[in-house]
Amino acid sequence: MNPITSLGELIKQAISKFMSAPGVDKNVVEELIRGIQRALLVSDVNVELVMKLSEKIRNRALTEKVPPGISKKDQIIKIVYEELVSLLGEKPYKFTIDKSKQYVIMVVGIQGHGKTTTVAKLANYLKKLGYSVGVVCADTFRTGAYEQLRQLLDGRDIPVYGMPGEHDAITIATKGIEYLSKQQKCNVILVDTAGRHKDQQSLMQEMKALEEKIKPNEIMLVLDGTIGQQAGTHAEAFHKATPIGSIIVTKMDTSAKGGGALSAVAATGAQIRFIGTGEKLEDIEVFNPQGFIGRLLGIGDLEGLLERIKIAELELSKEKLKSFTSGTFTLEDFIKQFKEMKKLGPLKKILSKLPLPGLPNLPDEELEKVEAQIEKWSAILLSMTPEERENPHIIDSSRIRRIARGSGVTEKDVKHLLQQYNLLKRMMKSIKRSPWKLPKHMFSAELEE
Ligand SMILES: Nc1nc2c(ncn2[C@@H]2O[C@H](COP(=O)(O)OP(=O)(O)OP(=O)(O)O)[C@@H](O)[C@H]2O)c(=O)[nH]1
Ligand SMILES: [Mg+2]
Asked: In terms of pLDDT, which residue wins out, 225 or 429?
């Protein structure tokens, strides 16, 4: 098997086998989990981590309730996706450092993986974020390394320090950092180093000595996304010599799925911060764990699938709405319902996906008004007593006045909320057994006279 895409391929195989199984039972789930375990293990992902991950997937797959309208299979794919994403860190990384302090990033990695290109890209990126950036070329092995950096950053107003002819990386790095911070007043300093292989003891030693001398704030490992399963062992070797704080995966514009990066993350405990997506200076992106796993799993319409599931989960709360007909649906439930819908995105998009046959075509501005109202309604709710929330019919005009004053809205606003609530309540009672049909004014932001 081609080691380059093995992790992605193996996971994909396990998933497609799972998808083509005639049904879903415990055995089919176990088979899927074994497939994923095998994929991760041959990619050198740490055994303990693999076991933890599979235990989580198994537990969730066997216990979580399937939302109506979604197949058990789709739900399990979503679980696998979410667990893999959480392995990589949920949120994209945001670079924030104190602009008044000096921050040194030492960039290390295997020969040809894209360190120099990445240093230039990152310098340019950070400069655009408003940092004052400088670059040191401490690569004494590759001929023309300094020239390469200078060319990449030509015309960008980013100082590049180098000492062509000098053979000691530590001397260059120390002088470079001093020059950039004192003379150029640089806040962020990136140090490009020579490419090395994990078995080149002298070079690994040099890296360690360099780290001890310059004491960087962060050591960044640059990894070629096409490297596949060797990434784990490489990353581990680098991590042993100098603690890796972050990872950049390059060449993600090629056929690379970056499966090896997952092993590198597992081996170092460091997070992937950026990905390289081309040879040009602008081809750098903040790493997005969700997009990455989506690509790795290779499910054509993963986003569509996840969205369908989100909507279906919303349907679960539509079931809650049914409690309305039995009279247990409170004002609080009513607002919560809208809030939940809002979390999923613009109301219009969500409403268009709900199977509500009677839903009229609503003008955008009406929906925007409803969205704006949700916050107002929440404030109104806070000014009500628990009794009022449970039994809104007790709210008379003097209570309305008090609530309006307490929540900083007009009496008309309070009346409007009560009206919308009553309307829905009445409607739900009358259509107990018929399909959902919402009257147009249900979403009207104006008070009905
Ligand atoms: N397609 C693509 N090519 C890249 C990317 N990053 C780097 N490269 C290319 O990879 C090659 C090696 O890049 P370098 O930046 O010189 O790699 P290096 O790690 O500094 O190499 P050494 O200094 O020799 O260890 C160059 O041809 C780059 O243009 C990327 O994100 N996408
Ligand atoms: Mg280089």
From this structure: 225
Q: How far is the CA of 114 from the centre of ligand 2 (A)?
A: 7
Residues in the chain: 449
Nearest to 289 by CA among 27, 61, 85: 85
Amino acid found at 422: N
Ligand 1 pocket test, pick from 279, 285, 286 with the greatest ligand atom count within 8 Å of Cβ, gives 279
Question: What CATH code is assigned to 103-287?
Answer: 3.40.50.300
Q: Is 246 helix (H, G, I), strand (E, B) or coil?
A: strand
Model-level pTM greater than 0.90? Answer: no
Indicate the fold that domain 323-443 takes in CATH: 434 Repressor (Amino-terminal Domain) (1.10.260)
35 lines ligand 1 (CB under 6 A): no
The pLDDT-based confidence of 364 (bands split at 50, 70, 90) is low
145 Cβ neighbours under 8 A, 6+ residues apart = 116, 137, 139, 162, 192, 194
- What is d(CA 226, CA 223) in angstroms, rounded to the nearest whole number? 9
Give 342's pLDDT tier (boundaries 50, 70, 90): low
Number of neighbouring beta carbons within 10 Å of residue 256:
23
- Tally the C-alpha atoms within 13 A of residue 353's C-alpha that lie toward its C-beta: 19
- Half-sphere exposure (Cβ direction) of 6: Cα atoms closer than 13 Å: 21
CATH placement of domain 3-88:
1.20.120.140
Q: According to CATH, where is 3.40.50.300 located in the chain?
A: 103-287
Near ion ligand 2, which residues have CB within 5 Å? 115-116
Pocket perturbation via mutation, ligand 1, pick of 108, 117, 150, 206 by most ligand atoms within 8 A of CB: 117
- Residue 263 pairs in a beta bridge with none
Amino acid type, 427: M
> What tokens does 121 get?
């890209």
Alpha helix locations (H) across 242-363?
259-268, 289-297, 302-322, 331-343, 347-353
